[in-house]
Amino acid sequence: MKTVSVSYKRHRFPPQIIAHAVWLYYRFPLSLRMVEEMLLERGITVSYETIRRWGRKFGPVYARRLRRKQPSRSDVWFLDEMRIVITGKKHWLWRAVDQDGYVLDEIVQTRRNTKAARRLLTRLLKKQGIAPKRMITDKLRSYGAAKRLVMPTIDHRSYKGLNNRAEGSHVPLRKRERTMQGFRSPGGLQRFVSIFSALRNHFVPPRSHRWAQHIRNHRLLTMAEWYVVTKAN
């Protein structure tokens, strides 16, 4: 767990309310006004703009303090790119997930070419520290070209249908995009996904532990860790 400090000084609301509001907004497909209404139902009067500020201030801190999955040489990286239109201009969100659906990294770029793919792979290697056993992508040739430059010895498979895990990882963000009625800037999208995916990684159980009892135990454990991370207990 990261040791980034959390300070709630000069905030009139207690940490429990701030952390709960941030959790609601980033964990579920809710708008800021929906979170405002949910808090009001509990007798907490706070504006959606205040919730937005809480998210921007505390969201990155919470995300950095959450426990990260340790990389392994047996990991398989699934890579894919998602088109997002921001103020009428097309952008690409490049994403990498592992065999458990854990989001490894995401980066917003304006291009869908070899240079963009190489940047993603370079960031991944730096962040993970070790190369994977295998890399799986769609048939975009930029991945193969970038792979030959960055990690030429790694097994690369690019067949239609093999990349469904990466493509499926876009679905939660698509839901958020509709709820938020789009993103306002590339920087805003990058900040949002860094927090959104960190919380999703933390709270969603691995694909290998999807039995009912495992899910309940996972939820209890991750919520207990969340209270420690946010100092909201």
Helix/strand layout:
Elements: H1 15-27, H2 32-41, H3 48-65, E1 76-86, E2 89-97, E3 103-109, H4 114-128, E4 134-136, H5 141-150, E5 155-157, H6 164-168, H7 171-179, H8 186-203, H9 212-230
Parallel strand pairs: 1-4, 4-5
Antiparallel strand pairs: 1-2, 2-3
Detailed description of the structure:
By secondary structure, the chain is an alpha/beta fold. The chain folds into 2 domains: 1-65 and 185-233, no CATH class; 76-184, Nucleotidyltransferase, domain 5 (2-Layer Sandwich), CATH 3.30.420.10. Helices cover 50% and strands 14% of the residues. It has 9 helices and 5 strands; from the N terminus they run αααβββαβαβαααα. A 5-stranded mixed beta sheet has the order 3-2-1-4-5, sandwiched between helices. Helix 3 packs across helix 8 (186-203). The longest helix is centred in the last third of the chain and has 19 residues, at 212-230. The two termini are 17 Å apart.
Summarize the structure.
50% of the residues lie in helices and 14% in strands.
Oligomer class: single chain
What value does the average pLDDT take?
92
Helix-strand topology string: HHHEEEHEHEHHHH
Structural class: alpha/beta
Number of helices: 9
Tally of discrete structural domains: 2
- Shape summary: globular
Uncertain spans: none
Largest pleated sheet: 5 strands, mixed
**Rg, please?**
19 Å
**Widest β-sheet, arrangement of strands:** 3-2-1-4-5
| Approximate helicity band | 40-55%
Beta fraction: 5-15%
Q: Tally of extended strands?
A: 5
Could you give the distance between the termini?
Answer: 17 Å
GO molecular function: DNA binding
Domain DDE: 76-203
Keywords: DNA recombination, DNA-binding, Transposition
Protein name: Transposase
